[in-house]
Amino acid sequence: MSTGGEVWIALGAALGLWTALSALRRGIPGPVAVIRWFAQSWLGRALALCAWAGAGWHLFCQRP
Amino acid sequence: MNRALGVALVAAAAAFSWWEGGLHQYSTAAHSGILAAIALTLASALVAGVGRQATTTGAWLRGPLPIRRHLVEAPGATVAVLVWIVLLLAVIGWDLNSFVHQRHDLPTLSSIFGHLTSSRGGRAAVVALWLTLGAALAVGWRRPR
Fold first, then answer.
1. Does A17 touch chain B (CB under 8 A)?
2. Which of A27, A59, B83, B103 is in Cβ range 3.0-4.6 Å of B76 for a Cys bridge?
3. Looking at this predicted complex, what is its ipTM?
4. Count of structural domains within chain A
5. How many CB pairs under 8 A join A and B?
6. Subunit contact A44:B60, Cβ cutoff 8 A
7. What pLDDT, in 10s, does the model give residues A34-53?
């Protein structure tokens, strides 16, 4: 396992742990709450949709 | 939404995901399919969204600013949001670091996704997740008309 791979595993574990905690504890907003926050206004929704479109183009039509 | 229309849309999205999953990333068909999905999603956001946002852009921008007040009124949730911000910045920062160095032992996030999308099933599953997120962002969490 490369150094970079170990860091990605640690980051993935931290995100997974925090997501699990948010599902178990009522006071912690989960990933859906983060997405919902962006969808509250036109600007937030437009920013999120631009990021979504860019990610899709990159993932499915470019580098990977 | 009409139930039959909802079922038809889900079936169409699943069929599109499987079709797109079988295409190569550099093919014209893959590009056209993704561009069409983006155009449809953006059009849906515009059509569904007129006058139905939960809040104004100004209020949305000002909302997080009084951090001290948020910390007093809802300390747990505020700290939780700060943890989300730190985690997301860590992911972005590490991805940028890996991209800048371009070393084999520092894979970028997109190269990791590249392993996932190298098979038809993996690519189709990631396309389906991407479409779901796009649909939620385009038409989700609107005020009723």
1. no
2. A27
3. 0.86
4. 1
5. 137
6. yes
7. 888 888 889 999 999 999 99
Distances (CA, A) of A38 to A5, A26, B31, B103: 30, 20, 27, 34
d(CA B26, CA B124): 16
- Domain residue extents for chain B: 3-139
The nearest alpha carbon in chain A to B80 belongs to A28
A22 to chain B, any CB pair closer than 8 A? The answer is: yes
Q: Mean per-residue pLDDT for B53-78?
A: 81
Does pLDDT of B3 surpass 90? Answer: no
Q: Which of A2-11, A46-55, B71-80, B126-135 bottoms out in mean pLDDT, i.e. has the lowest?
A: B71-80
- The 3-class SS string of chain B reads CCHHHHHHHHHHHHHHHHHHHCCCCCCHHHHHHHHHHHHHHHHHHHHHHCCCCCCCHHHHHHCCCCHHHHHHHCHHHHHHHHHHHHHHHHHHHHHHHHHHHCCCCCCCHHHHHHHHCCCHHHHHHHHHHHHHHHHHHHHCCCCCC
Query: CB-based contact (8 Å) between A20 and chain B?
Result: no
